[in-house]
Amino acid sequence: MANDTNRFQAIISHCKEYGFIFPSSEIYDGLSAVYDYGQNGSELKKNIKDYWWKSMTQLNENIVGIDAAIFMHPTTWKASGHVDNFSDPMIDNKDSKKRYRVDHLIEARIEELEKKGDKAGADALQQAMDSLLAASDFAGLKKLIEDQKIKCSVSDTGNWTEVRQFNLMFSTQLGSVSEEASEIYLRPETAQGIFVNFLNVQKTGRMKIPFGIAQIGKAFRNEIVARQFIFRMREFEQMEMQFFIRPGTQKEWYEHWKNERMKWHLSLGIPKEKYRFHDHVKLAHYADAACDIEYDFPIGFKEVEGIHSRTDFDLKSHQEYSKKKMQYFDSEINQNYIPYVIETSIGLDRTVLMVLSEAYFEEDLSTPEKQDSRVVLKFPPRLAPIKLAVLPLTKKDGLPEIAREVMDACKSQFRCFYEEKDAIGKRYRRMDAIGTPFCVTVDHQTKEDQTVTIRYRDTMQQERVPIADISRIVSRQIEG
Ligand code: GAP
Description:
Elements lengths: L3 H14 L3 E3 L11 E3 L1 H20 L4 E4 L8 H5 L2 H4 L1 E6 L6 E3 H14 L3 H16 L3 H10 L16 E4 L3 E3 L9 E3 L5 H5 L2 H7 L6 E10 L14 E11 L4 H17 L8 E5 L9 E9 L2 E12 L1 H10 L5 E3 L4 E3 L2 E8 H12 E5 L8 E5 L10 E5 L6 H12 L5 E3 L5 H11 L3 E5 L1 H6 L1 E6 L5 E5 L3 H10 L1
Parallel strand pairs: 3-9, 19-20, 19-21
Antiparallel strand pairs: 1-2, 4-5, 4-6, 7-8, 9-10, 10-16, 11-12, 12-13, 13-16, 14-15, 17-18, 21-22, 22-23
Bound molecules: glycyl-adenosine-5'-phosphate.
The site of glycyl-adenosine-5'-phosphate (GAP) has 19 residues, from strand 10, strand 13, strand 16 and helix 12.
């Protein structure tokens, strides 16, 4: 198995080679931090989306889904605080003119210290950075960078500018380009589409608190330091759920959603030790408590999901800016109030990266007689892009015709793939590389007794089963 840095690079190359993820507009040398999903990546992503959507809206009777527009009235972003607060402290190197996010620069130094075994130094630096960030002490952050002798990776100098804030929202023009009033933003989070529709959904759905509104959609951020493949992108997708509650109950609901979300993560078959909670030290402008669920990526433990207790900040602020009442009448206690909100917000692309990282294995299958190896993606069957490959052993003797019948019997239930080219071993390896959990091979015995071999991806074991049983075997595994 490759070491962690190599493993990350190997996963990126594998994604490109097997149709999962390509750099965007690659024929023009790509676009920084923007990626396209290929034929297998888009299926994987859709399966993750469906699994999340079902877990939210189908398994919770009090959660419904919406699909709001990406473009929103510009006042939305004034009310949400994004115009004034959605910025990161940045620092520029005067020699290379390269711009860095201050926390990323210091985090890289922390990682260096950890690698050298200086755990105490790393912890102290982490603490110093957290408290300076919490206090928005920019001069202190610059001093910390200088004291640590942190250098720019391009110029190799420590010739830094002051630390400044940069807004991460993309703007564009609606209608005439010359009027200032027509400037609008590409949404930096999907959450606001839920808040502005709170009353529409509550009234038309006759929803009673506590209830949730879920949404999956694109978000855009002009990330200054864009790296690490699909971990940090400028165009990405979020799966968010805002849960509206009675004021004063936020602590218990916050704990409830922390538990529920961790259960969802574990249901992906990822072991508990690969996850941890990270409590926020510096809270966002809207939150009274917040944590991240971090996963142990090949690049270290990093945030995949945020859980935020958002108070009544958003609805209250929209009420103020729109002059429309955002209140809810709680008939159980006979009171009007603006609900509090617990938010769960998971990055879809980061979840794709997490599932890929967990699934990727390089296996040595050598025997004393022969060197052999395979790369296999051990996806949970429900997430695999293709569930079943149907492979006639040869292209003749009527085997393709029988294989086509198997395809026809199964393809309306789950995604199948038919292939007759190359030796069967080669075809199995190709299916392993894209994570297909089951292959059935139609051979000469099939003609006699209507049975096929089914090969299981993870164990590579094969067994003989009646054709009539295939669909049931595969469906049962997909359902888990
Ligand atoms: N509505 C709350 C919100 O947007 P966030 O922590 O900024 O909170 C939520 O983002 C999730 O969105 C993150 O946990 C991460 O998975 C994903 N995310 C944020 N920025 C991202 C980026 N530039 N590229 C990919 N995913 C990103």
